[in-house]
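Exercise 7b. Backbone tokens:
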């Protein structure tokens, strides 16, 4: 499966500039894992692709505190969607200089500006995150920047087990992790699932 997806990603080109592949799906579905595997496989074949996560556009805790939204970090209104849109536009058509994108550090749960360098030779951006296909502004304009959008999914019980395990791995006690999944991640998952029909390709990651 990965070979076929790698070939498809390699074949993407965009007359408007650099191609941008978007991967979306519910929390824990495997978006980041697939993006890493793809970029790794593309590099192995000498193809210049770079991973740029939507998670880098999480608002910082200081900003979330001002907005009173820290207790639901990960919801659509806890991201800098306009900043993400501006960066995707730069990534599409800026070739004279490196473009730097932020990453999200899961240890401290904070975005870090200037973490990811996209150099001029880069031909494909692989970006991934929860809300790429959402219908509220500015997300439809983000969708327009994507050459293709892929929606990844696994059975819900497997996804939830992995999601709780990931929260525990990054420091939450098991009970708090389960509560966070039920109260924060799953409402987000329902919104994301409602955007499923807007994708160009659906991928069952159970076999990965
Ligand atoms: N094929 C797989 N086998 C085992 N664990 C996986 C697999 N794919 C993903 N995971 C794990 O499941 C969790 C969720 O995957 P991740 O890629 O972080 O999802 P997303 O980015 O969609 O939230 C991670 O901890 C990841 O390591
Ligand atoms: Mg992820």
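Sequence design result:
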């Amino acid at each position: 499966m990965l070979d076929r997806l790698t070939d498809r990603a390699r074949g993407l080109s965009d007359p408007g500039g650099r191609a941008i592949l978007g991967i979306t799906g519910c929390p824990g579905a495997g978006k980041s894992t697939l993006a890493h595997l793809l970029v790794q496989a593309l590099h192995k074949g000498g193809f210049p692709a770079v991973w740029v996560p939507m998670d880098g556009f999480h608002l910082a805790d200081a900003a979330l505190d001002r907005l009173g939204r820290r207790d639901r970090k990960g919801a659509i209104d806890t991201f800098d969607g306009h900043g993400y849109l501006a960066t995707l536009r730069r990534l599409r058509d800026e070739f004279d200089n490196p473009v730097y994108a932020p990453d999200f550090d899961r240890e401290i749960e904070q975005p870090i500006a200037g973490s990811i360098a996209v150099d001029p030779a880069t031909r494909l951006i692989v970006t991934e995150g929860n809300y790429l296909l959402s219908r509220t502004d500015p997300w439809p304009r983000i969708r327009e920047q994507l050459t293709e959008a892929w929606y990844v999914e696994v059975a819900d019980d497997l996804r939830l087990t992995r999601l709780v395990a990931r929260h525990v791995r990054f420091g939450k006690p098991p009970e708090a992790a389960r509560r966070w999944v039920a109260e924060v991640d799953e409402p987000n998952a329902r919104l994301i699932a409602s955007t499923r029909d807007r994708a160009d390709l659906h991928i069952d990651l159970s076999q990965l």
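Instructor comment: The first strand starts at residue 19 and ends at 24. Helices lie at 2-10, 31-44, 61-67, 81-93, 139-145, 156-169, 174-193.
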